[in-house]
Amino acid sequence: MRSSIWTALHGIFLVISSTPTAGLPQLQTNIPRAASTTPMVFAHYMIAFQPPNLDYTNDIKLAKAAGIDAFAVDYGGWSSGLPYFAHYLDVFYKTAEKLDFKLFLCMDVTSGLPGADMVVNLTNFYAGSSAQMKDAAGNIFLSSFENDAPPWNWQTDVVDKINAPVTFLPGTLSEDAEYTASTNQGYGPFTWVHPASSVSQENDTDTAFAAQRDANGNPWMAGIAPWFFRRTASDMNWFHAQDSSIWVNRWVDLLNLKPNYIEIVTWNDFSESTYIGPSDRTPASVLKEPTTTDYYGNLDHTAFLKMTSFFVKAFKAGQTQVTVDPSEEDVFMFYRLQPVNAMGSDSSYPDNAWPLPKNASYIQDNVYIVSFLASDATVYLSSGGQPWQMDASAGVSKGTVAFTLGDQILTASRDIQGAVLNKTGPPIQGQLQRYQGNIVAI
Ligand SMILES: *[C@@H]1O[C@H](CO)[C@@H](O)[C@H](O)[C@H]1NC(C)=O
Ligand SMILES: *[C@@H]1O[C@H](CO)[C@@H](O)[C@H](O)[C@H]1NC(C)=O
Ligand SMILES: *[C@@H]1O[C@H](CO)[C@@H](O)[C@H](O)[C@H]1NC(C)=O
Ligand SMILES: CC(=O)N[C@H]1CO[C@H](CO)[C@@H](O)[C@@H]1O
């Protein structure tokens, strides 16, 4: 099965890698290593959605500037794109090499990856790249996203066949930390966010995963997401039980629980409205169904990336509190553009005939304010002309305001970064042409 190209490249890896064990199957994944990891933050990048002109430069520069250590490249989601993904991945690695950035593979086994051989080949192919993400011990990262276990054995069919030591972080949707540890057999879990959980339930789940990590010594990678909204089919139509807490409070909880790694879910999954990267791009046609307008609205999520950099800095420094330099202060807001129960007015969008998204009853009609301050300030929101204010102190603060239709204008009692704070977001309307559950974050 192995082509001469594979063998030739394999040879190059042996030369590049000067560790005495290179080239031999490794079983080091079974050695507890959580204690010796350094905190790092990754962002989940869907290879199914390409940047404009297949140029990854902007994404890499933005992620680097926010302190993100690597993209976890989701390989396989929307498997109809599989014939092209290898090319995209190649461009991605080459660009990352040039920009001194890191990548690792997160094998998405939910939509029909051809098999373990492909996973092994791709992992080996890039293991020697200077852009390959490694942990503090020099092991390459490999991760997965899975609902159910794939039809292969990760240890014998994949990890044993990788020609470099591997830190394998298999994804799980399970909330059962003990069960996950028992099935992972020595690997750290990558825990996804749980749709049915409230924030305090998620907190309990995280606490249990942290305790398992402490008990068995395997690294734990926690997933964190700013928002979830999907409406791609009448049965793929949901929110999570969520509010601002899924992002702000959970970051603070994770700073306390200190997972070994944090993966932001996601950089660019427009289909689930979880992105923290740029939205100004044309995603794959699947997002445009059932009409030619992107249902997630290309809404700006810039603020989530800016917020990320504060949390990343604290996490990497091992701090449990966010501290803010006067030169970095900022205040953000995020909200939906319509009341949660307002169906779209234009019947030419077939999705306007679908029911409300699942868990819509858990979604509040709020504007969420998040301030990162070096010293106290009063933050004001005019929500559709209704005044609101919050006395915010140094560090991170969060405000929740029941919204009033109209313009949303954010100001403060003093200058922020030496300038007047004056952010006006798009107006909230009583009814849009098309149902919109995504948020704008500015
Ligand atoms: C292994 O992956 C590389 C990179 O995508 C590709 O060029 C090569 O053809 C693959 N080899 C096999 C045997 O599939
Ligand atoms: C999470 O749990 C910790 C410890 O019990 C608690 O201090 C914190 O307030 C909780 N956070 C949320 C959002 O419930
Ligand atoms: C904010 O900007 C708006 C529109 O430019 C302007 O009308 C308003 O006076 C500004 N507010 C402050 C506090 O500068
Ligand atoms: C908190 C809550 O009720 N979440 C629900 C969200 O929707 C899923 C799927 O319908 C339910 O299983 C959850 O209970």
From TrEMBL:
Identify the species of origin: Cladonia borealis
Superkingdom to which the source organism belongs: Eukaryota
| CDD domains, per database record | GH71 (cd11577)
Alphabetically ordered keywords of this record: Signal
What molecular function terms (GO) are annotated for this protein?
glucan endo-1,3-alpha-glucosidase activity
Q: What protein is this chain from?
A: Glycoside hydrolase family 71 protein
State the signal peptide span: 1-23
